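pinning this so it doesn't scroll away 📌
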Amino acid sequence: MSALVSRLYNSQSIEQWQHERTMLHSSGIWGREPALEYLAEEVVKTGDVVVDLGAGAGYPRLRLAGMAGATGNVVGIELSDAMIEAARRHCRAGNLSFRRGDISQPLALADEFADVVTGFMVLHNLRRAEMRRTLSEVERVLKPSGRAAFLTMHPDAFESQWHLQFLSYDLSALQRYRDAADKEDIEIPGCARNVSGGENAIATVYHSRCSVLEAALDAGLVLTDERDLWIDRETAVQMFGIGSIGCMPTTPTYWMFTLAKSGTVTNGHADAALLNGFISEHQAAVASAQQCGLCEVIPLQVRTADTPGG
């Protein structure tokens, strides 16, 4: 992970990721903004302890700090020294702090430390083995009633042919991806333009939906919600101009999903015995789909004891 992080996020690229500029790339417009709205409306509560993995230069974490309020606490974990320096300089709040750490390794956080764990566009910078270690740490640091919400590249993003000047990927890497029988961990480099000017290097390490869900289940987490996020033509024209659009994607570009501890979901549910069986079936379905190269597992739609109506 460290090699990829140092290549993408360093003192030369820092300007593109500082403060609100972070929100003016395609992943901010169609990814981070919807994810932050979802967190504010459905996940983060006043007084929550939030851990953000891959905090970057900090701006979305400043928004999280506002959601958690003065009685809450937001901790951003980031590997890049340049990003941490920028975050501490530009994103200041009494309940917000940043720590250096590799999210693919054990975190210097206590067990059951966080009410919420978040990750914005970070999972696709991890190899599969790193992602599995990260999700295991997520399960460890989450409180029993906690939730983990991630925004990442959609597993189907490169399954359609599209051409956008403001979000482009290396054609030879895309061809290798499309020709490969096993696409897992293939790295596809690219470039993203900023609405306010400038551009920066990006990269996607491909993970199938199955591999993500399998890693979550192995870590003791279950999928409770997911959203497909699309780049729409109207916003693209408004932000980047009609000339920036050659061919629109016909697949979602970003993927937002929420995880909970499987034991907590079971223990907090009125029909725990039935739900235990359902989770076992859910796990078996993911394993079966993984073997078949498919993954059509539906997220668990359950209510826990602390959920209204639960």
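📌 and the second one:
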Amino acid sequence: MPRTNFNELLDAGVHFGHLKRKWNPAMAPYIFMERNGIHIIDLEQTEQKLEQAASAIKQIAKSGRKILFVATKKQAKDIVAERVKQVNMPYVTERWPGGMLTNFPTIRKAVKKMSSIDKMATDGTFDNLSKREKLQITRQRAKLEKMLGSIADLTRLPAALFVVDITKEYIAVREAKKLGIPVLAMVDTNSDPNVVDFPIPANDDASKSISLIVNILCKAVEEGLNERKTEKEKEADGKEKRASKDVKATAKKVRSVKVDDIEEEEEELEEEVKVKHQQKMEELYKEEFDDE
């Protein structure tokens, strides 16, 4: 079943590109026509590319790895933050901190700094500080939360990046490419689709267009996570069944051993009775012959 259709993309305004004079020639294969000085994106290609990107992002989520969503432009940040939070993926909607990927250990230290400040608030350390020191630390915590709070759970480099507007987020794209991290992105007519691995030709300025694309990709993430959960449950059930089968086999083996032991004891007892009976008969015969 297709994740979207031509009419849905059309209604969201995904087909509207930039002015002709602002276009990037590398986008020529994805442009359908030009009308009133504005390039119109070929929605059939958008549909195909979106399906490819959704399939890729689903497999990444299914493998248990993280996808980092990046959207710092005004009309995209709230949409991305709200939707991506629902699928428990990291995101950046404030200014991209330079070196976030290429200097990841330093970013992790800043995230740990937030945790240490939270610990100070609970273990009573705050009570021994002056009012000014408390204010400075609180402001520092708020600043870190605003910049890095959404990636607090990102303990290692993400498996992929999804970017809204690669022209604006060129630093994030460059860092990802430098580290070999695949990039999925909404690419408008003023951008170069060759710098990303999974370009989705689409209007990256309209909130409706952004919302539709992000929602489709987040649904793909949910599908991947659900499949992962189902596979884990099946694996757990399989282990439980195998364990139960092993227990039953062991019990059967024990019962078999016990039966064999009982049969062996019965045979020995029967042999012993026969021997004693034989000895008794011999004694009787001997007494009888002796009396004669």
